[in-house]
């Protein structure tokens, strides 16, 4: 019942969004896309969620990402301008740094993770999000294995978006895909078309034998477990945690052109995150 009430509330809120879009996100033309319906309750049971219904980040579930050497986190900052909870949404912003005397990074971004606070093994994941495109922008919704270091722990990228693309990337990474496999067998990733400036729902159905990626409820890529390569091909038999990240710049995204500072601020909004297990 609570889940259905939430869906009704989101439906009502979507009409409000047309006239009260948050700063940094364009409404675009036409009606706002209505949210995807809940999965069949006879098949799936909701076990964890965050609807971002308060006015601050739930620190029992999330921690802000810290800066590090990898491209996805080398502009992370705890600047309070970069993250807020408002109108039932998580807002992650990316800005051109106007305070380089305090921090030399040319851009500042925000991300959150459930590492150390929530992990799960197998189930159905759904994340409803949208983003403001910008040259150099790289929003992502993804998961990492809680055991071992990268890439042996495995990575499941539910959504990565580059610049002004009208598609998203969905990929798995592991010690097998990074260091061993030279033929992309089985195929480790693909792309899916989206309505770029609209809300979309990204996710996967994950079990002991396969990961089926989805966009707006439709299967977009299946990555299977293959017995012959062994555990290095399938580290996806351990608990995983979430990372929701906004990033500006990096080797991959800048391969399609240098970051344009006039396009910022930009960012990503997340309406909700949900995890289901199969109903008994």
| Low-pLDDT ranges | 1-35
> Overall 3D geometry?
globular
Strand composition percent: 35-45%
In the CATH scheme, the class would be Mainly Beta
Tell me the span between the first and last alpha carbons: 19 Å
The biggest sheet, with number of strands, parallel, antiparallel or mixed sense and barrel status, is: 9 strands, antiparallel
Tally of helical runs: 2
Number of strands: 16
Could you say which structural class the secondary elements and strand pairing correspond to? mainly beta
User: Could you please say which CATH topology applies here?
Assistant: Jelly Rolls
Radius of gyration: 18 Å
As a percent range, the share of helical residues equals: under 10%
- N to C succession of SSEs: HEEEEEEEEEEHEEEEEE
Q: Give the overall pLDDT as a whole number.
A: 89
The total tally of domains equals 1
CATH architecture: Sandwich
């Amino acid at each position: 019942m609570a889940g259905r009430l939430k869906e009704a509330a989101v439906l009502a809120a979507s009409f409000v969004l047309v006239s009260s879009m948050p700063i940094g996100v364009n409404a675009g033309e036409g009606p706002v896309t209505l949210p995807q319906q809940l999965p069949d309750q006879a098949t799936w049971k909701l076990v964890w969620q965050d609807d971002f219904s308060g006015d601050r980040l739930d620190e029992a579930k999330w921690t802000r990402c810290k800066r590090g050497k990898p491209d996805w986190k080398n502009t992370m900052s705890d600047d309070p301008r970069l993250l807020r909870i408002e109108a039932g949404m998580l807002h992650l912003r990316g800005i051109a740094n106007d305070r380089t005397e305090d921090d030399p990074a040319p851009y500042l971004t925000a991300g959150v993770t459930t590492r150390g606070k929530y992990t799960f093994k197998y189930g159905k994941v759904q994340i409803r999000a949208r983003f403001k495109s910008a040259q150099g922008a790289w929003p992502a919704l993804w998961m990492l294995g809680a055991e071992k270091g990268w890439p042996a722990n495995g990575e499941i990228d539910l959504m990565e978006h580059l610049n002004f693309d009208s598609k998203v990337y969905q990929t798995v990474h592991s010690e097998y895909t990074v260091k061993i496999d030279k033929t992309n067998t089985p195929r480790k990733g693909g792309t899916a078309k989206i309505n770029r400036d609209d809300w979309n729902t990204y996710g996967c159905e994950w079990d002991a034998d396969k990961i089926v990626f989805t966009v707006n409820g439709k299967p977009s890529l299946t990555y299977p477990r293959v017995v012959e390569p062994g555990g290095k091909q399938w580290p996806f038999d351990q608990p995983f945690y979430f990372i929701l990240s906004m990033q500006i710049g990096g080797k991959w995204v800048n391969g399609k052109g240098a970051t344009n500072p006039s396009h910022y601020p930009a960012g990503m909004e997340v309406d909700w995150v949900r995890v289901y297990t199969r109903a008994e």
